[in-house]
Amino acid sequence: MTGKDMEEKFPRALWVRLFVYVVVGHLFAAFIYFLFEVAPKK
Hints:
The protein has one helix spanning about 5-40. By secondary structure, the chain is mostly helical. It is rod-shaped, with a radius of gyration of 18 Å.
């Protein structure tokens, strides 16, 4: 594996990981919002 290959693959893996963290973070935030805003009103 050359330096150019490593240079091309690392940012893609980093972006995928960042995207997953953002999605999971928003799902968790929506769950917390549901617990505190929607559930008590029932």
